[in-house]
């Protein structure tokens, strides 16, 4: 393996979750727990939901068994790997009629029936609730079994739980506490456990949101710290509730924390807890003591820690459930008072109402921030901070932050200007700073040291032809076509060729040998399937860019060969270079379906599998027709996969 730029993660996975640094826990004060009344529909006080803690899932964040849908016949290379040592056996497909199978048609067109043999959803009838009838388990959709027999089937592996109880992520917990208690800054969640990197596509997936005994302690300590800060005095409590009466405080705080009005029984239980605080030591008023105790209890309640979907299979989610689901996705925090008012007023009782609300939310700063987080996880932006190179004079570690920021700004612009997948793959607009201007052969940018927007020219087509991606996927100054091809295959085309066996490192480049020739000769055992058909052609299209992302016409004295062919669903197509390949991808069904899959997995917080083919078909067609990420999001919100209860234990 070549030295330098060694990624500290598994490049085979589409997620790289970085652990937060540990910090000291806040000091525990009175160890008081609420005896609040539980609902049979909620996890018990130990926060171990049967839907979350499935049998056979050992450990804190156990990985789940995976179903495989027609992967390639040969493994792929992981860390500069270049040889294939054996085939990969495909697993079973999800059976038709599996539990939890959303229909594909948008409910803005009425209730839909399941996808047919072509994978396209049909719509009939009416009904604002968009009933979920039929399944999408057909495996004859072009998304799963493409008409081009040489094309790579979309990877739809997974084992969704369809849990009714989705724990808040650490970031959602932190922002919710800040908003509920009107704190200038919430107690950090840095001490909380984080998912093991590589377990799921995204850190908000249901599989990695269980609660261990250690995390229960973390919640207790954090709740106590938050309560001490918010309940320091009547002045700090006035930010939460203007009055000084216990029942009014409990009702106002409970509605925010539980994301719905408290039941009569819950109100009574908390009032009793509030009253008991008068016996505690201290000079504060009874109101301050009682309010602080209630805050501690509510922030440790399962009703706060879990977002719920409690209806029967196929029923539309309640207005409060939809308010929570939308808010956590598009704002990253608990529903506001205004949003809860909208739920109470019936504005979310129809799909049209939910769509209208989502459309408004998409223009808020919070939605842009959430989409930034989505793209960061999808394309591993944190890895830009880990780049290291040796023997490359043009590289300095200070460049890493600029590469990261340029990536963030690229996707921020895509979202802000209502663009879509086509622009991600073909836009020549990028962001250039003082560290990267010379590599782009652009005059030094203006003063201030910030990044500026520039047209990078006809050769820089799409995000993947820009410096961040190209520099990350290289070894010192040598381009890495294997990982360039692999990452685009996994994250743009959703074509997963499989898992490698033992993989040797690439040999040194010989005199007069091009990088392409070296890689090609050492991946011959896989030449007909994984490398030769899917990975290498994509990677080789970027051979005009060296390890620092600079344009080059020659490699080791030889003319660069960036030509190739790729088997798209629509047919195998030839290209001359990366610019042509990116343009072909932008026009392909696969790229739009893959983006739909990734976006759906993030929004629904679960694995996307064969039963979701109808959903992906609908979103793919919307993306192709509108080239707008926002339009795809609205279409997803209108789909029964989002706005109805899908599967799960009854």
Structure explained in plain terms:
The structure is a single chain. Helix 4 runs parallel beside helix 6 (286-299) and helix 11 packs across helix 12 (399-416). The chain has 22 helices and 12 strands. 36% of the residues lie in helices and 6% in strands. The protein is mostly helical and 650 residues long. It has helices at 170-180, 213-230, 234-237, 246-258, 264-276, 286-299, 302-305, 319-330, 337-344, 351-361, 365-378, 399-416, 421-426, 467-472, 481-491, 515-522, 530-540, 578-587, 589-604, 613-626, 629-638, 640-643, and strands spanning 112-113, 122-123, 165-167, 306-308, 429-432, 452-455, 474-475, 478-479, 554-555, 558-559, 564-568, 571-575. A hairpin with an 8-residue loop joins strand 1 (112-113) and strand 2. Residues 1-41 and 43-140 have low confidence and may be disordered.
Secondary structure: elements and pairs:
Blueprint: E1 112-113, E2 122-123, E3 165-167, H1 170-180, H2 213-230, H3 234-237, H4 246-258, H5 264-276, H6 286-299, H7 302-305, E4 306-308, H8 319-330, H9 337-344, H10 351-361, H11 365-378, H12 399-416, H13 421-426, E5 429-432, E6 452-455, H14 467-472, E7 474-475, E8 478-479, H15 481-491, H16 515-522, H17 530-540, E9 554-555, E10 558-559, E11 564-568, E12 571-575, H18 578-587, H19 589-604, H20 613-626, H21 629-638, H22 640-643
Antiparallel strand pairs: 1-2, 3-4, 5-6, 7-8, 9-10, 11-12
Helix pairs in contact: 2-6, 4-5, 4-6, 5-6, 8-9, 10-21, 11-12, 15-17, 19-20, 20-21
């Amino acid at each position: 393996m070549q030295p330098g730029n060694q990624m500290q993660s598994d490049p085979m996975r589409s997620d790289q979750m970085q652990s937060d640094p540990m910090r000291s826990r806040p000091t525990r004060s009175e160890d008081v727990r609420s005896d609040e009344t539980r609902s049979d529909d909620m996890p018990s006080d130990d926060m171990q939901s049967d839907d979350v803690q499935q049998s056979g899932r050992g450990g804190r964040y156990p990985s789940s068994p995976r179903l495989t849908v027609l992967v390639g016949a040969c493994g792929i290379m992981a860390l500069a790997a270049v040889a294939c040592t054996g085939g990969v056996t495909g697993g079973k497909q999800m059976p038709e009629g599996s539990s939890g199978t959303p229909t594909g048609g948008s409910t803005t067109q009425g209730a839909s029936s399941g996808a047919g043999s072509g994978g396209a959803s049909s719509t009939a009838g009416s009904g604002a609730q968009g009933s979920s009838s039929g399944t999408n388990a057909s495996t004859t959709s072009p998304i799963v079994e493409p008409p081009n027999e040489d094309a790579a089937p979309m990877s739809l592996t997974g084992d969704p739980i369809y849990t009714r109880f989705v724990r808040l992520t650490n970031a959602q917990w932190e922002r919710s506490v800040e908003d509920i208690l009107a704190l200038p800054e919430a107690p950090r969640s840095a001490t909380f456990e984080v998912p093991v990197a590589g377990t799921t596509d995204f850190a908000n997936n249901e599989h990695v949101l269980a609660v261990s005994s250690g995390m229960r302690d973390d919640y207790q300590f954090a709740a106590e710290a938050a309560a001490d800060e918010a309940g320091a005095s009547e002045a700090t409590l006035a930010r939460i509730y203007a009055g000084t009466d216990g029942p009014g405080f409990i009702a106002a705080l409970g509605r925010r924390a539980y994301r719905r009005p408290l039941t009569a029984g819950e109100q009574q239980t908390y009032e009793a807890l509030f009253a008991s605080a008068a016996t505690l030591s201290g000079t504060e008023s009874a109101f301050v003591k009682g309010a602080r105790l209630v805050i501690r209890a509510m922030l440790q309640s399962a009703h706060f820690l879990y977002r719920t979907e409690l209806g029967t299979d196929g029923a539309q989610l309640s207005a409060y459930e939809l308010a929570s689901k939308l808010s956590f996705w598009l704002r990253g925090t608990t529903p506001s008072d205004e949003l809860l008012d909208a739920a109470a007023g019936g504005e979310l009782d129809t799909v049209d109402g939910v769509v209208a609300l989502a459309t408004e939310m998409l223009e808020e700063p919070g939605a842009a921030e959430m989409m930034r987080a989505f793209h960061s996880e999808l394309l591993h932006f944190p890895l830009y901070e880990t780049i290291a190179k040796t023997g490359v004079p043009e590289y300095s570690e200070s460049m890493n932050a600029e590469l990261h920021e340029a990536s963030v700004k690229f996707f921020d612009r895509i979202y802000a200007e209502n663009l879509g997948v086509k622009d991600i793959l073909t836009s020549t607009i990028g962001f250039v700073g003082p560290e990267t201007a010379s590599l782009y052969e652009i005059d030094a940018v203006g003063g201030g040291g910030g990044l500026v927007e520039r047209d990078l020219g006809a050769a820089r087509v799409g995000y993947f032809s820009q410096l961040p991606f190209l520099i990350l996927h290289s070894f010192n100054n040598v381009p890495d076509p294997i990982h360039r091809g692999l990452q685009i295959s996994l994250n743009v085309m959703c074509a997963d060729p499989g898992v490698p066996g033992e993989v040797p490192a690439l040999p040194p480049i010989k005199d007069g040998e091009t990088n392409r020739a070296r890689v090609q000769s050492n991946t011959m055992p896989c030449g007909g399937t994984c490398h030769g058909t899917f990975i290498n052609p994509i990677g080789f299209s970027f051979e005009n860019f060296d390890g620092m992302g600079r344009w080059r016409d020659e490699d080791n004295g030889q003319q660069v060969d960036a030509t190739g062919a790729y088997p798209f669903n629509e047919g195998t197509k030839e290209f001359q270079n990366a610019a042509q390949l990116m343009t072909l991808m932008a026009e392909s069904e696969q790229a739009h379906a893959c983006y739909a899959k990734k976006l759906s997995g993030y929004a629904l917080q679960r694995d996307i599998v064969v039963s979701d083919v109808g959903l992906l078909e609908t979103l793919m067609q919307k993306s192709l027709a509108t080239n707008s990420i926002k339009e795809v999001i609205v279409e997803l919100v209108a789909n029964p996969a989002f706005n109805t209860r899908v599967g799960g234990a009854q």
